[in-house]
Structure formats: C-alpha cells, structure tokens
Amino acid sequence: MNFSKTYDVIIVGGGHAGCEAALASARMGASVLLLTISMDKIAAMSCNPAIGGLAKGNLVKDLDALGGEMAKNIDASCIQLNVLNMRKGAAAQSSRAQADKAKYAYRMTETLLNQRGLDVKQAVVSDIITENGAAAGVKTLCGQTFYGGKTIICSGTFLKGKIYIGASFQEGGRAYEPASVELSDSLALLGFEAVRLKTGTPARLRADSIDYSRLAPYDTGGDKRPFSFETEKLPPLEGRCWSAYTNEETHRIVRENLSRSLYYSSADKGIGPRYCPSMEDKVTKFPDRSRHQIILEPEGEASGEVYPNGFSTSLPVDVQLAAYRTIEGLENCRFTRPAYAIEYEGFQPTGLYSSYETKKVKGLYFAGQINGTSGYEEAAVQGFMAGVNAVLSLDGREPFTLGRDESYIGVLTDDLVTKGIDEPYRMFTSRGEYRLRLREDNAEYRLLDYGRRLGLISEKRYKRFSEEKASVEKEIERLKSVSVKLNAGNRAVLEKEGVYMNRGQSAYDFLKRPEGSYDMLKKMGLGKLEGRAALQAETMIKYSGYIAKQNEDVARFARLEKRKIPADFSYDGIAGLRREYAEKLEKIRPSTLGQALRIPGMSLAAAAILDVALKKAGKN
Q1: What kind of fold does domain 563-619 have according to CATH?
Q2: Residues 6+ apart with CB under 8 A from 75
C-alpha cells in the first residue's frame, strides 16, 4: 500500500539516536517520519538506567547547547545526580544521573508525539528504496511504502541481532523483541559490508530480595547541577545506589562453566566492548583480581527492579543465579530478567562523511550503534548531527560539522570517519587533544551560537546566555583592578580556608591560585556574581594560561583543517605518493588535509606530498 505523503526526512529506529534525529529535523522545519519497531520502547534504556559519566556527560552538555533533548529529558526523570571528579579541575568533571527509566522513556515519547511536523509510526522497515543511487524512501514488512528526501538509519542492536543465554540463542534486537533481518539484507544489497559487534547486559534483580544492611551506599558525591542549562529545578533526588563485590567463589563458578556459554566458547563471535567486559572476560583476562565491584542501581522509583552494573554475562540462567548469590547481600536475590549477550551488525564508519551521510548512497545517513559505538550518549549526538545535516542537505546548504577543538562531538565524529572501529567505540576525555577547552561548564560558550544559527535555540535562551556572558566578561576585567588586601577581615577568611598569603594581590591573580576561589572573594566582599556566572568567571580565570597555550596549538593546526580536499579529488597518479597511502585516502576520502593526516598509518611525508598535489590541482 502506497501513501501519497512524501516526507523530507525518514528516520528508522526510535532509540536515543532516532529520537534526537527526529526532533532536530522537525524543529528545523522539515516534515519528518519516525518509524519504530515498538511504540512502547521509544527511548528505552536497554542497559543501565543512567545518562552521563566521564566524557559522556560532556557529550550531553554539548548536545544541550546545540538544542538537543537528552539533557532536559534526564533532568526531568533523574532520581540521583552527581558531578564526578569534583576534587579535580573543571576539565575532568562530568555529570552522571540515575534515571527512572520508565519516566525517561515516557517523557521522550510524549515530546516526540507533541512535536509539530513529526509523525511517529510503529513499523518494521524491510527495504531502503533508492532512485538513481540516492535514498528515496523505505518499505515495511506490512506492505507500506513511505517516500522521503533523506533517510537516517538508527537501528541500534537490531540488525540481525542474536541473543545468547547459555547454550541457546534466538534472533532479537533486545530481549523478546524481533531482530531486523530484512533491513540488514537490504543494506547488503546496496553494497554495505557488515561487521559483527557484541554487547551484553546484566540480570535484573528484585529490589526486595536484596539485603541492603550488608551493603555500603554508593555515592560519588559532588554537586547536583542539572544537565540542561535551561533546567531551573530538579525533581527530588531520592534514588540510592549500593556497592557490592564479587569474590573468589563467584569467579570459580563463572570459570568452571565457561564451556556452557555457547557465545563465549564460540570461536566466531562479534567484537565486544573492551571497557565494559562481561564477567567471563573479567575472570579470564584478570585472573589475579580477587574481586570486582558491582554497583546496584535502581531502575526507577517504583519499578522494584535493580540493575547490577558490572555483572553482564551470557552463562546459563542457573549458573548466573548461583554466581550472583555468592555476593554478599545478594545471597537470596531473585531474578526478574536474566543476563544475556547480544550480537548484531554494524558498519565501518569510515564509509561515512563527517555529516554522517553514507558514501555509497546519497541521502542515506547512519547514526548510533550501527556505526560501531556504544552508549546512549554517543548514539544521541550522532542522531542529532545526522538529523541536522539531512535538513541542511535538503536546502543545498553546507554540512554542519564540529572540530576536535570545539566539542567532544567533533572528536567522536572525526575518530569514527577517519579511524574506523576495531571494537565498540566509547567516548573518553583522553580522546580529546583539547580537553581543557571542551569542559562541561563552557558548553554554551562554545556551541550556543551554532544551535541558534540552526534554529534550535530560542531567543529567550539566547538572551539569557548573552546577558550571562557579558556579566562574566565584565567581571573578569573588573577583578584585574580589584585588590585582595591583607586586612584583618580578609585574613580571617583566608585562614579559615587554609590559604596563606604574605602580600596582597589582584583578585584576578588570586583566582589563578589553585586554592583561590570566587566564593572566598564573595566572603571578602569582592565578588559580584552568583551561581553559574560566578563559577564560569572563576574557571575562565583559572584556565586562562592553559587555554592560551592550547589556543596556540589549535592555531598551529588550523591551516591543515582549513585546507579542503574536493570530494571528487583523485588520488591516483600523485607523484611520490605510495600506493598504500593512495588506497587509504581513496577509502576514507578525507575532507581536509588535517583529517588526512589523522588517518591511521598516514605519514607526514605523505601529507606533504598530498598538500603539493592539492596546490597543483588548485592552480589547474
């Protein structure tokens, strides 16, 4: 059955990538269709019920500054929220929140259904329609055909997904949900070569079967700052996590039953995440470890289920239960759902442009776990970028991309399309060369202008930010001429805080001291700002010297990033360029000389030869 309505953008998949892609596209004025296998599973938290964490929190903050939804959604549904690494500098700090996963999914679904220009329908997509080498729409298993100018695939773990528990397996994209087999076959016919990837999830425990008296509360401490810069008030934060540990008996049971896991004992299995290993991996790869920490995380205020973070496995259910029950506090635990491993298809992201458009099929975009990433946050930012670029492409406008010096989103994108993946990709602060610039606190300062130009930031928000920015800049200049004098009152404040000075200095230089704080200046009657503005002024002053040095590094590489490589540039026959380099360049097709230099194995000499060839081609 054909439908006469043609959409500007069609999005396949209602996970975290699909939600952000749909909202960004519709809010930019496009007519959008979101197709999901289940209306009841939109924005589902398939694994741990949490958003953020080290570097992941930065992604969410950056997404919020661009106009995304994830930060607002977690603020409205969180039951516990902390800023991690509060004892370290601002560049190391990241927000993390426990979610009530039912509330999280409900609010996101409600947001989608109330978005003007967006249709949400339940359907299983079976085919990608192409015309003249470009995406033109999709077909569904129940015979529907939808036409669209651009198509974004956000398939998560559903492409030919297989779920493994013990000696059995079944097709599925999540437990008791069907795999997407036909769509995978359709993509293969278009020339996409899949790689098999793997992840897993722990069992879920009944909260009333856990003996909390034998466990220690797990609280990372830190401030309770909202994720979104627009959130004025958080809900009551009543969730509590608990810390437990495996032991030698746990490890013995796992080790002696490895052969009973069809997935783990298979020689031909997908690539799993190095930084989130299964318990099987933990006991075999770290045999000297006598215990591993497990964090018991509530799945919601009224769910009655607990997520044991750190104990994923594909062992048989009886072995799972026996192993879990060796842990102190879990001796009588009961399962509501068993743990399982899932293997699924993804595609090498080197087959994408930085806009997330595929190189093989014009107008077809991939976002999320289909690109070999792990995590809700990594998926969400990819979906947003794909949605934005799909709309820009409709209007014939230049793609929107972010540099590695502008956002962790830029780092993630560049890593994917330039280096590809050899395991599920997870964001870490260590991946960013310019992480002193990419802090959570300054996300709006870096990215809000972009969001406004895209039409995703309201005038009210931009006005609030502009006023805050002006007040911060004014205060920074004022503090250069304000003196911290060593009078009796100031000495009392300093001594109470453990700060010792033998002479006065400017308030600006005082804040450069590791122990100096804006709060101290206020106690001395020298500070005028409140809240976020005060924190921003302090952080900008403390980091000013480091940022100035990092800005020099950015400027040094700016020429390479500005040196564009035409999309149709030929690498064949470049004098002096070895064939292996030409093949790498042809495969990746970098958009700039800087990106070419970041291709794994590319040499400085090869980049110099390419630079000369580009100049020669430009003259011709």
Answers
A1: DNA polymerase; domain 1 (1.10.150)
A2: 97, 226, 227, 228, 231, 234
